[in-house]
Design goal:
single chain, 32% helix
Amino acid sequence: MIKDLYKNKEAKKWRENHGSLECDQDLGERVYTSRLIGSNPDLVMHGGLGKQELKKLHDAKMINIIGEEIVSYRSKKYSDNEFFFDYGKKEIKANRKMGHLTTLIK
C-alpha cells in the first residue's frame, strides 16, 4: 500500500504562493502533487521513450518586443518561418516585454 503524503496545509501554501487567481492556485496545487508523485520511485516511470537523439532542424533568432512595439506586431502578416508570440498583457508599458518574434533561418 502506498502511503498518502498529501498534506492539506502544504497544498494550501503551494496554492497561495502561485497567485490570487483560482487558475493560478490550481496550478500551484498541481505542482505540489506532481512533486509528491515525482519523489516516490514506485510511482515514477523510468525509461519512458528511452534516450532520444536530438537533431537540430533549423537555426533561429528571437527578438523581444518591448512596450509600444507590440502594436505594429499585432497587425502584421507573418511568413511561414516567423512565429509571433503575444504575451497578452492588458497594459502596454515602456520597457515592458510584451512578446517575442522567432524567425527560423532555413
